[in-house]
C-alpha cells in the first residue's frame, strides 16, 4: 500500500515534498552556507574555517560600507536611499494606473490592459537597462533628439552617470511589481461600499480618501515590499548606469565574489544588507499595522 | 407523503458503530443504521452534524476511523469509490466543464464493454429519462442550475448503481424549481427502483420525499423514523424544534400506575398515552410539546368539547392561507403559537383581542430529553 | 469629457513610458549608423546579418535555449506538484513550506546567486556549467510557475475528481481525464513563462555559468564595446519579439483555460 492510499493530508504532503526538497537543497542550504561562510576567512582559494567576526567588524567600522566619511556616504545607506526613492516613485506613479484599470476600464478589457502593462516586464531586463543607458547617454537618444530638434545646443550631462539615472531605470523596471498588488487590492473592494459612502453624503473624492484608499492599503504595502526588497540586490543597473565610478551595495557584493576574491566578506555584506532590508520592511509593516488598528 | 408499501427486503446497507475522527474532532459518534433495498432514505440535520461525512463514508471518500460498512452483503473497508456500487450527485453537481452534456453522462461508461452505438443509445436514454433529450451536444458550462442537476442525475443513474447518494442536490435551486424537482425525484426513484440516500438540512424536503429519515445532531442519530412519526412523535426537544414549529411548555410529569400524567403550567392537568412519550418518561420537571396546528382559537360564536384556556392575542403574522397567532395565557411563560386556516368568514384578529384557545391532551408530546 | 478622462490620459502616458525603450529597439536596429543617436540616417538589415554570421552568438543562443527548455520543464513539473498540494487539504506546516518555496519572489536575486555559488563551488565542489545555471533558474522560476498554476488549480471544484472516481475511474484516471485537461492551459502558460524567465536571466547566469556563456551573459560582454551597440539593438529586437510572441501564446492559453472552465475572466498573470 503506497502513501497515496492513505489520508488526503498524507497525499498532499507527498505531492509537496519534491518542490520542498528542491527548495531545501537549492535555497535553504545555500542560505545557511552563506551565513556560515560569513564567519570564515578567505585564504587564497580556500577558507580558514575558524569562527571570526572580522568580516562584520570590517563592515561596521570601515567607512566605505556603512559609516561613510565627509565626502561620501557608505555604500549601504546610499543603496537603501536609492531603493527607498525608487519604491516611493514607483508606487506613487503606479497607483493611479492600478486605480484606472480597476475602476474605470470596462471589465471586458481589463485583462487586455493588464497584459499590456506586463509585456515590458517580460522582455529582457538586461536589454531594458541597456536601452535606458542608450536613451539617457551623453550621445544618447534624448540628447541627440533634443539637439536635432534644436531645443538644446550642448548635450545635457546630468542624465547619465548619476543616481537619478539609476532611479529612473529601476522605476521603469519595477513598475509592474507595483501595479499588480495594488490592482488586486482595488479589485477586492466591494463596489457597493463606494455607493454606500456616497449615499451617506460623501463626495466622489472624499469617498476615495475615506473608503477606497484605506481599503487598498494592503495592496500598497505589498507593492512597497515587492519593489523595495529586490531593488536593493540589483547590480546590473548601477553597473551600466553609473559607469566605473559609482557603486551600490550589490556591486560591492558582486566584486567580492569575483575580482575581490573575498567570498566571506561578500557573504557578510549580503547578510548585513538582507538584515537591514528585513528590519526596515518589518518596521514598515509594524507601523502600518498600528496605523490601521488605530483607525479601526 | 411517500409512505407506500414496499416489498419486505433484507437490508441493502448496514452501518455498524461507525466512528470518524479528524484529529480531535469527533465527526461521527457511533452510527448504526440499516437501509433497505428500494428505500428513499434521508439524512437530515443542521450543518456540521456529520450527515455529509456519513454520506461520503458510504461513497468511499472518507474512511471510517472504526466500525463496519456493508453494502449488498460486501464489507466495504478498503474498497475505493470507483469499486463501490454507489454513485453520487454532488452538491455542486461537479459537471465536467470541458466536456459536452453527452460526454458527461457517458463518463462512467469508458470501461463498458458494449459497442459505441449502444453506449450512445444508453446516454440518449438517460438524458431522455431526466427530461434532457436532445441536449447531448450542449457545452456543459452553458447549462442552468436545474439542467446541471439533471445531467448529474443521468450521469450517476446510467451506471445502474445499487445506491444513489444525493448530497443536498436541491440546495442550489430556487424555491419553485426546488419544489418541482422534489416531485420529479420521487417519481424517478419509484421508476428506477434504486435506493436513494439524500442528505439535506431542509426538514420540509426530507418530510416530502423520504420513506424514512434519520435526524442527526453532533455526529449521532437523534431519531430515525418515517416522516409522520418524526413529525408527530419526536423523541427529544432537539428533534421537535428542528422539524416544524413546536410550542414547548414546562410541565410536571408523573406516573400514576401505568398512566402518564402531565401538569402543564397555565393549561392544566391531563393524561397521555405511552406512545406520546417516544423518548421515555423522566418523572418530575419536564417539557411537553404541542404543534401550532393542533391548537385552535375559538372565534366568537364557536364552541368546542375540547379543553379551553383564555388568553390575549399578542402577535399576528398573516401568511395568506394561514394566520399564526401568538396568544398570551396567564400562567404560561411564553406565548403559545397557534396556526389557523383562513377560512371564508373567519376574521383575522387584532393584537390585544381577548380570545380562547382550544387544546387537547392527545396532541401533547412528552419531551423529557 | 468622458469618465476618467484625466486618469485615462495618465494611464496612456504611463504605457508610453513603459514601452518607450522597447519601441526604440527596432528603430535603431534598422538604422544605418553605428552610433545610437538621432537623427536616423537610413534603413539597413546589416546588423541582423551580422547576428547571422557570429558563431559565438549562436553558441550562446543554443546554450540559452537548452537551459530554458530544461528549466521550464523541471520548474513546471515541480510547480504542478506544489499547486496541486496548495489546493489540497491542509496539514501541519503546509503554509510554511509553500511560503518558503515562494521566497525567491522577494529575495534579492544577488543573494540567491552568491549563496548558490558558494554551495556549488565550496560545499558541493562542482564545476560551473549549464547544469548549475538550470538548477538556479528553477529556483527563481518555481514561484512564478506555482503562481500561474495555482490560478488554474484553484478554479477546480474539488468534487470534479471525486465525481470521476465515483463514476469508476481510479485516482490517476480521474486526474488524467478531468484535472489535467482543465489545468492544461495553465501548464502551457507556466512552461512559456518559465522559458522566458530563464532566457532573460542575467544575474544568476553570470554567477553560475561555466565555460559557455548564456545569451544575456554574451550580450553583457558586448555592451562594453561601443561599436557593437547596433548589433545589440538587433539582437534585442529579436529577443523582445520572441518574448512577446511567447507571452501572447501564454495569454491565449490562459484565457482559453478560463473559458473552458466556464469562468469569468479576472485578468492577468500572477
UniProtKB/TrEMBL annotation, chain A:
The keyword Metal-binding does not apply. It is found in: Cell membrane. Gene3D superfamilies: MetI-like (1.10.3720.10). It is a multi-pass membrane protein. Keywords: Cell membrane, Membrane, Transmembrane, Transmembrane helix, Transport. GO terms for biological process: transmembrane transport. InterPro entries: MetI-like, MetI-like_sf. Belongs to the binding-protein-dependent transport system permease family. CysTW subfamily. This is Spermidine Putrescine ABC transporter permease component PotB. It comes from Rubellimicrobium mesophilum DSM 19309.
TrEMBL record, chain B:
GO terms for biological process: putrescine transport. Signal peptide: none annotated. PROSITE patterns: ABC_TRANSPORTER_1, ABC_TRANSPORTER_2. GO terms for cellular component: ATP-binding cassette (ABC) transporter complex. Residues 13-243 form the ABC transporter domain. Keywords: ATP-binding, Nucleotide-binding, Transport. Transmembrane segments: none annotated. GO terms for molecular function: ATP binding; ATP hydrolysis activity; transmembrane transporter activity. The keyword Protein transport does not apply. PANTHER family: SPERMIDINE/PUTRESCINE IMPORT ATP-BINDING PROTEIN POTA, SPERMIDINE_PUTRESCINE IMPORT ATP-BINDING PROTEIN POTA. This is Putrescine transport ATP-binding protein PotA.
Amino acid at each position: 500500500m503506497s502513501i497515496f492510499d492513505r489520508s488526503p493530508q498524507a497525499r498532499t504532503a507527498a505531492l509537496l515534498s519534491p518542490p520542498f526538497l528542491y527548495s531545501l537543497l537549492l535555497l535553504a542550504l545555500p542560505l545557511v552556507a552563506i551565513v556560515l561562510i560569513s564567519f570564515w576567512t578567505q585564504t587564497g582559494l580556500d577558507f580558514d574555517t575558524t569562527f571570526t567576526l572580522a568580516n562584520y567588524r570590517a563592515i561596521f567600522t570601515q567607512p566605505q560600507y556603512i559609516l561613510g566619511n565627509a565626502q561620501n556616504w557608505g555604500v549601504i545607506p546610499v543603496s537603501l536611499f536609492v531603493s527607498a526613492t525608487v519604491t516611493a516613485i514607483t508606487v506613487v506613479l503606479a497607483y493611479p494606473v492600478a486605480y484606472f484599470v480597476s475602476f474605470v476600464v470596462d471589465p471586458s478589457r481589463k485583462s487586455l490592459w493588464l497584459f499590456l502593462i506586463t509585456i515590458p516586464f517580460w522582455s529582457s531586463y538586461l536589454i531594458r537597462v541597456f536601452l535606458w543607458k542608450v536613451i539617457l547617454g551623453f550621445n544618447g537618444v534624448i540628447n541627440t533628439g533634443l539637439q536635432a530638434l534644436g531645443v538644446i545646443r550642448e548635450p545635457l550631462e546630468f542624465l547619465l552617470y548619476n543616481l537619478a539615472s539609476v532611479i529612473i531605470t529601476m522605476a521603469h523596471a519595477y513598475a509592474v511589481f507595483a501595479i499588480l498588488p495594488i490592482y488586486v487590492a482595488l479589485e477586492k473592494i466591494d463596489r457597493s461600499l463606494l455607493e454606500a459612502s456616497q449615499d451617506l453624503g460623501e463626495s466622489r473624492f472624499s469617498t476615495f480618501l475615506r473608503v477606497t484608499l484605506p481599503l487598498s492599503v494592503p495592496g500598497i504595502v505589498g507593492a512597497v515590499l515587492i519593489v523595495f526588497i529586490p531593488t536593493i540586490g540589483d547590480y546590473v543597473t548601477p553597473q551600466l548606469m553609473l559607469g566605473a565610478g559609482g557603486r551600490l551595495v550589490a556591486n560591492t557584493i558582486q566584486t567580492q565574489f569575483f575580482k575581490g576574491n573575498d567570498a566571506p566578506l561578500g557573504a557578510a555584506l549580503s547578510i548585513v544588507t538582507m538584515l537591514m532590508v528585513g528590519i526596515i520592511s518589518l518596521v514598515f509593516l509594524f507601523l502600518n499595522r498600528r496605523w490601521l488598528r488605530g483607525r479601526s | 407523503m411517500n409512505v407506500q408499501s414496499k416489498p419486505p427486503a433484507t437490508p441493502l446497507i448496514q452501518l455498524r458503530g461507525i466512528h470518524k475522527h479528524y484529529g480531535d474532532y469527533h465527526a461521527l459518534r457511533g452510527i448504526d443504521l440499516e437501509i433497505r433495498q428500494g428505500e428513499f432514505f434521508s439524512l437530515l440535520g443542521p450543518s456540521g452534524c456529520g450527515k455529509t461525512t456519513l454520506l461520503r463514508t458510504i461513497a468511499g471518500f472518507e474512511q471510517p476511523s472504526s466500525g463496519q460498512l456493508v453494502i449488498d452483503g460486501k464489507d466495504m473497508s478498503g474498497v475505493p469509490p470507483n469499486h463501490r456500487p454507489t454513485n453520487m450527485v454532488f452538491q455542486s453537481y461537479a459537471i465536467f466543464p470541458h466536456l459536452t452534456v453527452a460526454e458527461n453522462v457517458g463518463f462512467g461508461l469508458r470501461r463498458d464493454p458494449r459497442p459505441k452505438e449502444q453506449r450512445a443509445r444508453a446516454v440518449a436514454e438517460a438524458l431522455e429519462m431526466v427530461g434532457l433529450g436532445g441536449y447531448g451536444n450542449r457545452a456543459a458550462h452553458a447549462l442552468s442550475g436545474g439542467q446541471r442537476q439533471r445531467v448529474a442525475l443521468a450521469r450517476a443513474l446510467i451506471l445502474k448503481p445499487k445506491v444513489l447518494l444525493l448530497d443536498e442536490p436541491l440546495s442550489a435551486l430556487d424555491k419553485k424549481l426546488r419544489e418541482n424537482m422534489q416531485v420529479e425525484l420521487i417519481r424517478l426513484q419509484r421508476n428506477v427502483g434504486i435506493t436513494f440516500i439524500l442528505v439535506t438540512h431542509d426538514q420540509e424536503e426530507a418530510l416530502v420525499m423520504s420513506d424514512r429519515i434519520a435526524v442527526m445532531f453532533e455526529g449521532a442519530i437523534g431519531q430515525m423514523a418515517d416522516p409522520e412519526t418524526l413529525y408527530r412523535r419526536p423523541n427529544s426537544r432537539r428533534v421537535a424544534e428542528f422539524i416544524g414549529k413546536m410550542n414547548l411548555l414546562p410541565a410536571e410529569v408523573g406516573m400514576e400506575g401505568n398512566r402518564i400524567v402531565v401538569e402543564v403550567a397555565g393549561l392544566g392537568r391531563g393524561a397521555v398515552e405511552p406512545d406520546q412519550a417516544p423518548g421515555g418518561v423522566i418523572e418530575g420537571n419536564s417539557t411537553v410539546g404541542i404543534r401550532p396546528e393542533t391548537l385552535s382559537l375559538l372565534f366568537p360564536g364557536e364552541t368546542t368539547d375540547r379543553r379551553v384556556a383564555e388568553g390575549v392575542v399578542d402577535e399576528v403574522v398573516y401568511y395568506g392561507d394561514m394566520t399564526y397567532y401568538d396568544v398570551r395565557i396567564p400562567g404560561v411563560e411564553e406565548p403559545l403559537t397557534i396556526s389557523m386556516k383562513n377560512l371564508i368568514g373567519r376574521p383575522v384578529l387584532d393584537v390585544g383581542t381577548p380570545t380562547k384557545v382550544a387544546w387537547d391532551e392527545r396532541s401533547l408530546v412528552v419531551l423529557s430529553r | 469629457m468622458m469618465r476618467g478622462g484625466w486618469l485615462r490620459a495618465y494611464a496612456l502616458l504611463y504605457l508610453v513610458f513603459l514601452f518607450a525603450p522597447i519601441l526604440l529597439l527596432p528603430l535603431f536596429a534598422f538604422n544605418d549608423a553605428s552610433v545610437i543617436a538621432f537623427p536616423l540616417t537610413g534603413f539597413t538589415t546589416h546588423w541582423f546579418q551580422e547576428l547571422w554570421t557570429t558563431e559565438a552568438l549562436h553558441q550562446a543562443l543554443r546554450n540559452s535555449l537548452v537551459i530554458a527548455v530544461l528549466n521550464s520543464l523541471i520548474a513546471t513539473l515541480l510547480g504542478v506538484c506544489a499547486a496541486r498540494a496548495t489546493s489540497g487539504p491542509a496539514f501541519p506546516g503546509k503554509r510554511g513550506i509553500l511560503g518558503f518555496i515562494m521566497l525567491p519572489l522577494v529575495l534579492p536575486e544577488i543573494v540567491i546567486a552568491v549563496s548558490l555559488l558558494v554551495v556549488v563551488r565550496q560545499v558541493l565542489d562542482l564545476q560551473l556549467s549549464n547544469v548549475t545555471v538550470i538548477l538556479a533558474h528553477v529556483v527563481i522560476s518555481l514561484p512564478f510557475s506555482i503562481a500561474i498554476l495555482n490560478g488554474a488549480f484553484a478554479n477546480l471544484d474539488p468534487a470534479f475528481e471525486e465525481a470521476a472516481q465515483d463514476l469508476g475511474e481510479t485516482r490517476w484516471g480521474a486526474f488524467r481525464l478531468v484535472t489535467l485537461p482543465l489545468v492544461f492551459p495553465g501548464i502551457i502558460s507556466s512552461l512559456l513563462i518559465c522559458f522566458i524567465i530563464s532566457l532573460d536571466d542575467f544575474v544568476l547566469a553570470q554567477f553560475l555559468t561555466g565555460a559557455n556563456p548564456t545569451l544575456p551573459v554574451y550580450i553583457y560582454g558586448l555592451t562594453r564595446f561601443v561599436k557593437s551597440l547596433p548589433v545589440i539593438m538587433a539582437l534585442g529586437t529579436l529577443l523582445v519579439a520572441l518574448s512577446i510572441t511567447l507571452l501572447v501564446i501564454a495569454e491565449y492559453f490562459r484565457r482559453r483555460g478560463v473559458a473552458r472552465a466556464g469562468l469569468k475572466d479576472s485578468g492577468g498573470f500572477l
